[in-house]
Amino acid sequence: MRNLRIISTILGRNAWQKPRVTLQILLRVRSSQVSKDSSTLSIPPGLENDPYDYTDGRWLHQDRIQRQARHVKFDFHALCKRVIELSPQARRVTHCEKKEGGSNRVFVFTLDNGERLVARIPFGIAGPRRYTMGSEVATMEYLRAKTTIPIPKFRDWSDETSRIGCEYMIMEHAPGVQLHGVWPKMNTHQRMLCIKALAKIIQQMTQLKFPALGDDFCIGAHTGTHFWDCDPTSPSSYTRTPPNRGPWSTIEEYNLALIDAGIAQIPDNPYVSDNNLSYRGSADEHLRLLEIARVIVTKQLPNTPQVRATSTRTLLHPDLHARNIFVSEEDPAQITAIIDWQSTSIEPAFRYVNYEPDMIDFLSRDSQYAGAIPIMSEETESLETKAKREKDIEICRKTYAVGLQAWSPALFLTKVLEEDYFRLLRFVPNSWAIGAAAIRQELIDLKHDWKKLDIPGECAYQPSSGELLNHKKDYEDLEVRHKLKLWLQDSLDSNGDGWVPTEEFEAAGEVHKSAFEIWLESSREEFENGEKEATEEWARELWPWDGNGKL
After folding, report:
1. pLDDT for the residue numbered 475
2. Distances (CA, A) of 183 to 191, 197, 329
3. Cα dihedral across residues 67, 72, 77, 83: positive or negative
4. Closest listed residue to residue 130, CA positions, set 230, 248, 244
5. Which residues pair with residue 248 across a beta bridge?
6. CA dist., res. 140 & res. 157, Å (int)
7. Residue 365: per-residue pLDDT
8. Rounded to two decimals, what is the model's pTM?
9. Are the CB atoms for 3 and 346 separated by under 8 Å?
10. Which of 72, 157, 202, 508 has the most CB atoms within 10 Å of its CB?
11. Residues near 343 by beta carbon (within 8 Å), at least 6 away in sequence
12. Is the dihedral of CA 399, 401, 402, 404 positive or negative?
């Protein structure tokens, strides 16, 4: 329900650090080593890419904005020197590997004493400056004090910019190997044991009671990006409503904050939009729907025992996927570390209604593991092989469900309840980005199932017949756009933002361009044949990524 962060005056977070000195960014360097006593520095071996720019991938949609949002200005050589200072007997960096995710840049340093340290630098889109880093450190320290969850120790961290020019965290490298790399090779029994161990780790988190009012920690403002202006593609202005970031005492207050987050994204200029299709909806329509949703989520839904039962304040790692889990190389069923605690927060349990570690359905054709394991085509796969694959998926899923039911009942309850209780809450913070038709459809579905869900009173949403008629066309357009995006993601092996590896960007761009032309041509044919009332402009507007002729 609220993010956990350190109050600097209580924990004394900089007590172990030396006095800080403002460091000038050094971009021109000459020597061949990074050492403690070097006066001239160079990029260490292994770091082939620019440490400041995002180089791991490109975007087929809003590429310039996305890459610019991940550019970080800092003093890389000051970071190298700090890493060396934190490792006893180390004199220089012998190798450095750069890794990038959606929210952070990571440098894995190998030092001449054999030790490996990991430095992580957050992008501006990761969350609010200072709060995000402090919250993560507090979460790690709190869990280390209250649980036995294996978490890498950090050597140093700073939410200020005076030492290297940006925030950073330096940690010990996680022991073991990434589960992502070994999961496809594990047998069914090993997978079952690993999932069971993961469920026990989840149990330790879900059994913690909040609010935490001890001597060392406090509950602070929520650092979730939907409560802050961190998304360069969907900026929040907070001119229509003031920031509502917590902490919150009740589920009603929390739900209200989600509504306020949605209102904050509605631009002052009602004509600002990435397209002119009616499913987007005007600013006034968004405000009207969100005001109706406000009544439902703050006065009606909280009165149901089902929502109350799943409102337990729950701290849970937001991304317990195989890339963030390390296991023993000798015994891959033994979890040795959980990394990346950024964005971990205290939420009502129902916020995790769709939460499932990605390795659970590793044999699914849609899984990210599909390319790493021998899954035959549907035409050539034998009935016996298909049955075994489906059985293994079911075993993994049941093992996880049984673990939740036994050790984390509030989370398990979210899996067996009707999702209609929670879907509206998932959509309202992003109302403007997804379109008014999406919010309206959630309200329609909720009204339809109102009695079945046993929600007291009469649903606050009572649409007219005219509204429902207009909505039908709007929602059809929204569904077409959504299906187009899913088709593009599958065809280009991308995600919803259009990300592809840098080395595949040019080829993916050509395929994307061809797909767009095919879509335009098919739309023209259908229009000319009278199969639908559409125009070329309609087809261009529905295309979800850059390439519609306007960008």
Report:
1. 94
2. 7, 14, 11
3. negative
4. 230
5. none
6. 12
7. 44
8. 0.85
9. yes
10. 202
11. 103, 126, 127, 132, 136, 223, 224, 225, 318, 319
12. positive
CA distance 263 to 283: 9
Q: What is the pLDDT of residue 107?
A: 97
Give residue 324's pLDDT band: very low, low, confident or very high (50, 70, 90): very high
Q: What ranges do the domains of the chain cover? A: 4-173, 180-207+312-352+354-416, 238-310+420-463, 486-542
Angstrom distance (rounded) from CA 323 to CA 408: 23
Reference 395, options 200, 196, 206; nearest CA is 196
Task: Give CA–CA dist 199/193, Å, rounded.
Answer: 10
Going by C-alpha positions, the residue among 249, 245, 277, 273 that lies closest to residue 261 is 245
Q: Are 317 and 341 in contact (CB under 8 A)?
A: yes
At the topology level of CATH, where does 180-207+312-352+354-416 sit?
Transferase(Phosphotransferase); domain 1 (1.10.510)
Measuring CA to CA, which residue among 46, 171, 59, 45 is closest to residue 115? 171
Do the beta carbons of residue 252 and residue 281 sit within 8 Å? no
Gap between the Cα atoms of 179 and 394, Å rounded: 20
Check if the beta carbon of residue 67 is closer than 8 Å to that of residue 499. Answer: no
* Per-residue pLDDT tens digits for 407-419: 999 999 998 888 8
Contact between residue 550 and residue 540 where contact means Cβ atoms under 8 Å apart: yes
- Of 297, 473, 294, 345, the closest CA to residue 2 belongs to 345
Q: With 80 as the cut, is the pLDDT of residue 367 above it?
A: no
3-class secondary-structure state, position 287: helix
Write the pLDDT tens digit of every residue in 103-133: 999 999 999 999 999 999 999 999 998 899 9
| H/E segment holding residue 154 | strand 154-158
Over 80: is that where the pLDDT of 33 sits? no
Chain centroid, CA 57 distance in Å: 17
Task: List Cβ<8 Å contacts ≥24 apart for 438-441.
Answer: 438/279, 438/478, 439/286, 439/289, 439/290, 439/293, 440/281, 440/289, 440/467, 440/471, 440/474, 440/475, 441/471, 441/475, 441/478
What is the distance between the alpha carbons of residues 64 and 229, in angstroms, rounded to a whole number? 19
DSSP 92: B
Distance (Å, whole) CA 442 – CA 450? 12
Angle between helices 505-528 and 465-492 (to 10 degrees): 140
Going by DSSP bridges, is the β-strand pair 104-111/93-100 parallel, antiparallel, or unpaired?
Answer: antiparallel
Q: For residue 381, what pLDDT band results from cuts at 50, 70 and 90?
A: low
Task: Count H helices and E strands in the chain, helices first.
Answer: 17, 14
Give me the count of residues in the chain.
551
Bridge partners of 219, per DSSP, are 4
Half-sphere exposure of 471 (CA within 13 A, CB side): 19
